[in-house]
Amino acid sequence: MLPLFPLTTITTASYGLDESLFRAINLAGTNAVLDLLMAFFSAIALPYVLPFLALPLWWKGRRELAFDLLVLLVVVIVVTEALKYAIDRPRPCDVLPGVKLLAPADCAAEVDPAFPSGHASRIFAVAALLSLAFKWSVRVGSFAVAILTGMSRIYLGVHWPSDVLGGAVLGVALALAFVGLARRLRSYQKLRARVVGAVARLVPRRTKA
Fold first, then answer.
1. Is 6 inside any structural domain?
2. What sign does the CA torsion over 18, 20, 25, 29 have?
3. How far apart are CA 164 and CA 151, in angstroms?
4. What is the CA radius of gyration of the chain?
5. Is the residue at 30 inside a domain?
């Protein structure tokens, strides 16, 4: 099946700058401390890890924000995966020689196409959502983590820099659109209130010692 937007041929011709940046950042296996750090930042944006951020938000009383975070992640994952298969761009470790990987199986474990980066779209969407809800310290911290997560995907050899940039832009754009719609759609607000209320009745409220 041909991709809807066959960017493979386009991006092959433009590997120059993308490859130069990739080679500069792809240092997996050259430093044990950096390997561990980059692996950590990559792991926190996994689709079955990042949703756990809703738990501290819930216990801090930001229940609607916790619900929004989970819904936003679902939206981002669906849109990102649809774009990945529509564009069908190969990963650098699939097409470039001499890519540095922590393990040979790391590239084979990435079963979907490269563009846009799912890790980047998810973590930047969450960073944007938190930035709209909290003060500067959280904004700076969340985007710092998002940037390091994006860098980790290049460092580990599984994404082009443009994959990460595209994922970051997509994540922020989806977060802003989601928040704007959530503020306007009464039906969503009612659904959120019902779900939050139902879960709140099932989860006991914390009591002070």
1. no
2. positive
3. 8
4. 19
5. yes
DSSP string, 13-65: HTHHHHHHHHHHH--TTS-HHHHHHHHHHHHTTSTTTGGGGHHHHHHTT-HHH
* Helix runs in 44-135, H state only: 54-59, 63-87, 92-95, 105-108, 118-133
What's the rounded Cα separation, in Å, for the pair 152 and 35?
9
Range of the domain at 133: 17-202
One digit per residue, the tens of pLDDT, for the chain of length 209 reads 444 444 444 344 457 889 999 999 999 999 999 999 999 999 999 989 999 999 999 998 899 999 999 999 999 999 999 999 999 999 999 999 999 999 888 888 888 999 999 999 999 999 999 999 998 989 999 999 999 999 999 999 999 999 999 999 999 999 999 999 999 999 999 999 999 999 888 876 554 44
Query: What does the buried/exposed string (b/e) look like for 136-153 if buried means 16 or more CB atoms within 10 Å of the residue's CB?
Result: eeebeebbebbbbbbbbb
Residue 84 maps to which CATH number?
1.20.144.10
Residue 180 lies in a domain: yes
Q: Can you give the pTM of this predicted structure? A: 0.88
Tell me the torsion sign for CA atoms 195, 79, 158, 2: positive
